[in-house]
Design a protein that fits this description.
The complex is a heterodimer of chains A (106) and B (127).
Chain A (H helix, E strand, L loop, with lengths): L8 E4 L5 E6 L9 E5 L6 E4 L13 E6 L2 E6 L8 E8 L4 E3 L3 E5 L1
Parallel strand pairs in A: 1-9
Antiparallel strand pairs in A: 2-6, 3-4, 3-7, 5-6, 7-8, 7-9
Chain B lengths: L3 E4 L2 E3 L5 E7 L8 E7 L5 E7 L6 E3 L7 E6 L4 E6 L8 E9 L2 E3 L2 E3 L2 E5 L3 E5 L2
Parallel strand pairs in B: 2-13
Antiparallel strand pairs in B: 1-3, 3-8, 4-5, 4-9, 5-6, 7-8, 9-12, 9-13, 10-11
The chains are: A mainly beta (106), B mainly beta (127).
């Protein structure tokens, strides 16, 4: 199966930019989706098929993808962005999630 | 606003079975791929199974293949997961989610993103 590698944790100061990476073999050739999950809640989709944001997701969230790394970027981070973030790709009728990254805003 | 509501979880002994259900509050349920994703306590998300719009295509994670069966009833806007031969490592919150397809070609669909999620139902396997 296709493996996706994420850092366990990322920290960012309030108001700064957080970047969460997702590594995979030639992931730049795939569309990557990103999910946010806060404690005790279901995941929500924040970025889909590369750079697209569902309605209701702030413009502060963006996605990019090149080579072997996809990146979720969160600008002007604040305490409400603290959550676990997961990348995901679709591969011939199966889905693969990254291991998840805990974002801390401190 | 679309809602997905799961049910059917509970405490079950190793080797036991459960039938998980997910009901969608929308009349276009039959237009979408549907999936089950689980999350063990303190762990990340694990994809479990997918089913296409008419139920003719099903896929399973290797960890559940042969033990779990995904199905759907479009007339009742319902998705199911029959889980058999349960093991301790199947203990998790099970989420159903709607799959938004990028495009389909030659009978294969690509770039599916899970845009609507239920709140989950908890399965605990323990003696």
């Amino acid at each position: 199966s296709y493996e996706l590698t994420q850092p366990l944790s990322v920290s960012v100061a309030p108001g700064q930019t957080a970047r969460i990476t997702c590594g995979g073999n030639n992931i730049g050739s795939q569309n990557v989706n990103w999910y946010q999950q806060k404690p005790g809640q279901a995941p929500i989709l924040v970025i889909y098929r590369g750079p697209n944001r569902p309605s209701g997701i702030p413009e502060r969230f963006s996605g990019s993808n090149s080579g072997n790394t996809a990146t979720l970027t969160i600008t002007r981070a604040h305490a409400g962005d603290e959550a676990d973030y997961y990348c995901q790709v679709w591969d011939i009728n199966t889905a693969q999630f990254g291991g998840g990254t805990k974002l801390t805003v401190l | 606003e679309v809602h997905l509501v799961e049910s059917g979880g509970g405490l079950v002994q190793p080797g036991g079975s459960l039938r998980l259900s997910c009901v969608a509050s929308e009349i276009s349920f039959s237009d979408y791929w549907m999936t089950w994703v689980r999350q063990a306590p303190g762990k990340g998300l694990e994809w479990v199974a997918n089913i296409n719009q008419d139920g003719s295509e099903k896929s399973y994670a290797d960890s559940v293949k042969g033990r779990f069966t995904i199905s759907r009833d479009n007339a009742k806007n319902s998705l199911f997961l029959q889980v058999n031969s349960l093991r301790a490592e199947d203990t998790a919150v099970y989420y159903c989610a709607r799959g938004s397809v990028g495009y389909c070609s030659g009978g294969i669909c690509y770039d599916v993103a899970f845009d609507i999620w239920g709140q989950g139902t908890t399965v605990t396997v323990s003696s």
